[in-house]
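>> Question from a student workshop board

For tomorrow's exercise we were told to take the sequence and the ligand below, predict the bound structure, and bring the output to class. My setup keeps failing. Could a helper post the expected result so I can at least see what it should look like? The ligand is adenosine-5'-diphosphate.
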Amino acid sequence: MAILGIDLGTTNSLACVWKDGKPELVKNSLGELLTPSVVCLDKEGNLAVGAVAKEQLITDPEDTAASFKRWMGTPKTFTLGGRTFTPPELSALVLEKLRRDAEEALGEPVTEAVISVPAYFNDNQRSATKLAAQLAGLKADRIINEPSAAALAYRLVHGEGDACLIIFDFGGGTLDVSVVECFENVIEITAIAGDNRLGGNDVDEAIARYFCAFNELRPGSLNAEQQAILLRQAEQCKCALSWSNLAVMCLPGPDGSSYTLTLTRDLLFRLCEELFERMKRVLARAIRDSGRNIGEIDHVILVGGSSKLAVLPDFIASLFGKPPLILDDPDTIVARGVGVCAGIKERSGEIRDIVMTDVCPFTLGTSVVNDDKDQNPHMSVMIERNSVLPVSRTDRFYTTRDNQEKIRVDILQGEEYYARDNLKLGEVLITVPPEPAGKQWVKTTFTYDINGVLQVEVENPSTARKKTAYVVNPSLHLSEEELEQKLQELAAIRSQLDQSEEEQLLLATAERIFAESTGRLRKETGRLLDLYRAMLAEGGGPALRHRERKWMKSQLEKLEKYREGEVFDLELPDSWEDDGE
Ligand code: ADP
Ligand code: MG
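>> Workshop helper replied:
Here is what the output should look like for this input. Compare the format with yours to find the bug.
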């Protein structure tokens, strides 16, 4: 039975399956790839989802909901046709439509899905997405980040070599920029930045505003329906410029007259200038946070429907000095990547398992409560926001009272100083032998994986007593076996990420050269060893460590060559040059 890959978008949603060794997009009941993420329940109780509901946004805006993805994980509700809906319920209606249409197209029942979400979605938003799937009759224990999905689709075409990518996802209402590093079978998001008020809608609005100014219409003079029509025309003309040099907008005026505007690419470019400025800032932030410089970016990949904006490639080219990469159809890239992920989940032999590492968008921590009179315990951070996933951290916590018998370790998520201001996910209570304060302690380990399973292990070394809590997203109810399977996957991921053996080999090689050599070579080898040891001690994400390994390896090769009598051209990093030689 096929697993359905779903790009559940703010504006449009798509489905994709893994078939005959490649991702295959699934058409909906109208024969289209894109299903608008819009739901309408009219006063007569008729439900419409997708293209039909999108039409009703104009004719029956009161009973129609769009862009509800923005509100996932929040208490906001929508009232349509006199009934109240939560964002997961509305999303479930979209998912249900995708599921049914896919069943029709594939000719078999679909019960399982992989769904993509923005990289910045927090635990609540991810849980809300899983809940939506459940409500739509879909088991979705795999949630994948949209930029990771796009990188998967990229690798399918461009192979598995090392690459540092910018995924520029420009959708209907949002811009998400991610720096993604790919090497071996790892895909790591190293930085994310975005503007959730910058999307294709803003281009439409800029065009509509110009239309009004050009025709000397006061924006207030149009009624709601005229405004909706104007915006729709603006959108149509914007899209038409992707294949045509000009597009004409026309709105009926009083007494049989009409207002018109001829839109050209030049004009579109000018109307977008302010939006381009904002894009530039988001790009700069993402690149700066990734620790890379602009020259190190191999490709900028345009993703999302608005990436088809006729004037966007020129703008990107002007910033990066090279044109962006456009992989087929930008608005289906994420869905195709999710399809690849579905294939991995089905364990299709054709694709290698890929480790996707993401950054954790929120902080996880604990407050250790030694005493119930302890009124205001503070948050003790275990996993810092923006840590690369999967991640594991260990810390010790001591008793604070004589003869204390229990230590309670709270599991918290959030950024607030006081424990009580953060979201409590669970707790572990452990018994310790009564002894003077500060004698007994617990070793606490937090491990968080890419599927949203947080494992908290608390151990009292003197009794060897150990307790483990698993916090799975609260709305997701896993059976014992599923949890076991997840934990095995987690162990596999951890061992794949732990490339310390290679690092040990590099150190051992350097030590051998040091032992074997004399004079300047020996001195240089010693410095190289110190520097690499310092790099390892500093830690860092898998991508950084991979680069450091590559660098160290090339340095060692040069040392070996020097010993063989070749030219000495060691490339010294800046820190070496300071202390002169
Ligand atoms: P989301 O990820 O928010 O669900 P999409 O990636 O589907 O959104 O993008 C939808 C946006 O793409 C809409 O604003 C639409 O106007 C825009 N769009 C689609 N085709 C084109 C085109 N040819 N030129 C410019 N914008 C386009
Ligand atoms: Mg999208």
